[in-house]
Amino acid sequence: MAAFLSYNRGLKQRRGSAIIRLASLTDAPALQVLNQNELGYQFSESETAAVLAQVLADHDHQQVWVATDDSGRVVGYVHAQLYQNLYAAPAFNLLALAVSQDYQGQGYGRQLLDVIATAAKERGLSGIRLNSGMERQEAHQFYQHLGFEKVKDQAKFYRPV
């Protein structure tokens, strides 16, 4: 498979300008804080950095994009993975989208999703899929506002090994 879209792109928004760029390993501390504060995941900075290093090395199948504010501070990110199976056309699977609460409602999330949508179109993928916890009603409204359609309810299972 061809590598994901790979470029730095300056995007304007209502308050100042956001830069959407591919993540680097130095972004791990900011991503860990976003995961903890905005998504509620307790995953250490060292664990985040270790996984981020693996993700960045697997650019044919997944990428992480970050949004920065005027000062260069990472205020949001999106993590997308190629979703390929034997029963549907290939798509992107959104594994995470997080924007700092202080920056929500200012277009950062939309801009991050726009980058993923552009990459999906350029790769000829069928679309973008995502799972979102049932309790995240505001996020559901955001996704629906951006053209996502709810396709089903489902239970999530996990088996430790």
Architecture overview:
The protein is an alpha+beta fold and 161 residues long. The chain is built from four helices and six strands, in the order E-E-H-H-E-E-E-H-E-H. A six-stranded mixed sheet has the order 1-2-3-4-5-6, with helices on both faces. The radius of gyration is 15 Å and the shape is globular.
Low-confidence stretches: 1-16
Number of β-strand runs:
6
Characterize the quaternary organization of these chains. Answer: single chain
Strand content is 15-25%
- For the termini, the CA-CA separation is 30 Å
Topology:
Blueprint: E1 9-12, E2 17-22, H1 28-39, H2 45-57, E3 62-68, E4 74-83, E5 91-99, H3 108-123, E6 128-130, H4 137-145
Helix pairs in contact: 1-2
